[in-house]
Structure formats: structure tokens, C-alpha cells
Amino acid sequence: MKYYYVNKINQSNGDHEVHYSTCNYLTSVENQEPLGYFIDFKEAVKKAKEKYVQSDGCYFCSNTCHNK
Length: 68
Fold this sequence. Notes:
Elements: E1 2-7, E2 16-20, E3 32-38, H1 41-48, E4 55-57
Parallel strand pairs: 2-4
Antiparallel strand pairs: 1-2, 1-3
């Protein structure tokens, strides 16, 4: 299991990106919201959507869950 965060600040398209804790594109600490440990990105994104309806996976660390 890996630890995930969601970016509190949305991107220009409105998405709040979900990242692994070790992603090089994880936002600064003050803009991170911890989600917790999950088996996969799908579960982490599901958790993020409880607060930020428009959430998706990071293009770099979770391309399979990234809205293209």
C-alpha cells in the first residue's frame, strides 16, 4: 500500500490531482491534503472525490487514473 495526497488547489481545468507521497510533482506541503494509505489509485481518487468532486490521478505518477 502507498500513501496518497490530493492537491487542495485545483488546476486550470478544475481538477484536484491525486499523487503518491513520492511523486516528483506533488505540490508544496501547505497545498497537500493527506488521503491515507490505499491499495491503488482508484481508491485514493474515490476518497479525494468525497471532498473535491473533480479529482483525478496525476499524469506522471498515475497515468491510468488521469483524465485525458
